């Protein structure tokens, strides 16, 4: 086999630092395209992005020559810097240091996109913590409840 073929889809979830201001809907409408541009420069095209006032869900394709941790670090760092420029309310905005990144097979892309695009409806029924615990349980990920 002379070629390397890779198809990796990642469902990424990360939350704002608890002391940071909530992300207003008007800011989110600017934030998501900004994050998509950051991901594009990392050769990681976004297939879906959405969230609520306190967290972001993103589905993207990870290429074979790109390190997952570097892509996530870049999008969080640059978007945090960007949001601080929007107004004084966000002067001390930060993302939490942690994140959840889960692999999705090609057959699961449409379902993941649907789930991400309907974040506001999900959170009419569940808190972020309830949602995140359910996702961890679905993917059978062990976690420390303190975090």
TrEMBL record:
SMART domains: Y1_Tnp (SM01321). Pfam families: Y1_Tnp (PF01797). Residues 5-119 form the Transposase IS200-like domain. It comes from the Bacteria. This is IS200/IS605 family transposase. It comes from candidate division CSSED10-310 bacterium.
